[in-house]
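Form P-L/3: holo structure prediction, ligand pyridoxal-5'-phosphate.
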Amino acid sequence: MSVLNRIIKTASRFLVNRAARAEESGRLTDLGLWGLDVNANGRLSVNGQDAVELVERFGSPLLVVNRKKLIEDARRALAAFNCAPVGSRILYSYKTNCIPGILKELHGAGLGAEVISPYELWLAERLGVPGEMTIYNGVAKTPESIEAALRRNILSINIDSAEEVETILTIADKLRIQGRVGIRLGFSAKSQFGLDVHGNEAMKVCERIAALKGRLEFSCIHFNVTSNSRWASTHKHYAGRAVEFMAEMKAKTGLVAQYLDIGGGFGVETTKNMSGAEYGMYRLFGCLPSPPKVADFPPIESFFNEIIEAIKAKCSELQLETPKIIIEPGRLITSKSEFLLTKVNTIKTRPDGTTYAMTGAGRLSMTFPCDFEYHAAFVADRPEARPERLYNVMGRVCTSADWMFKNRLLPKLNAGDVLAVMDAGAYFSSYSSNFAFQRPAIVMVSETGNASVLRAQESFEHLVAMDNI
Ligand SMILES: Cc1ncc(COP(=O)(O)O)c(C=O)c1O
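OUTPUT (holo model):
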């Protein structure tokens, strides 16, 4: 090995060890953050149900939804959002975790549906969500789905491109329905979403809608600009800009939006997006990012209150009536109440000391968010055990890119142990794939510890059900 290579190797080992220690010293150990605890056998427990037993019963990997925590988090968000004007609403972002058994619980608690595809629109209707509680976002909406949305008179079809106005108009005229529409504001040249605010595209579309009075009804101004935000500042900033747009729109076109939809993007205290530097160091050297600081995260009550007060103040400054506010949270509602269990199938230690823990779930099939977010992990057999060894935790897809965690300090693992990965309730199922394997079962554990299947593990027959074989 050349001297240069040796220096690089030593330096990267130093950086990896330093990052692993930093991760370990800041890691989240309070299982109560996810509504979990440890049972008398020292194992991870959800509402009195032993997590390892769940894997024995339903197989590995397995997604587990804690119903108590799910309902608690949904209710807390609803109560916190009471600071918004009467008639405001929370519409759960279906794409975040589109599992009917979970959606039904959320609708039962009082949340509506934010959908972005013909399938999600269909599912919301199938689950009995009223049109008044449904918003249709998304790019390149199909004519069939626009027709379905118009027939249901949903709260708003949020227009994403200039062409979409004409498509909606043609279908609405054909049906003799005055459809409710909104527009999605695009604030950034770096994003493909929405109507450009700076280049005047958004205002031109509003002028067109105003000219169609009696044929289209203007309902909503929408934007969605952030993800996993830990502070209210981004929402406040863009809500202020949206209110300025509304004032200008009223002056130029006479249109008034009943609703201001400020999108999703509200974070949770238990996970965080990697910074650019952390992402780069993780990619280049395998340095694990540091955990989020729970204490930094404002209670959701003050998070919402800050945004709503800023909107009210801006409206009063610009002499606009404060609109009803819509939010479309995904992660905030479901992230913490679901976790992933996966068995460690084999441990392999290489001559250079690198140790691989081979599991049933890597980022290419199950844990894609671990690519760019920090996620807490425990050994379900002994969640309180002290971390002592570095592991590359791998999935089972045949590429070295199928890692779940690189260089993670964990308690000494044995084949047969079960790993529990937290915050699986946002974007784990949505991004999961059946690359060579079936997707896993999803079970829900009730308040009294009863486990029921929300979605069975895919069978081989499911995998070929749409094929001509
Ligand atoms: C339009 C829209 N609304 C809501 C959300 C939900 O975001 P989050 O899960 O960050 O709240 C997303 C996420 O991509 C989105 O694109």
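COMMENT: The chain is about 35% helix and 20% strand.
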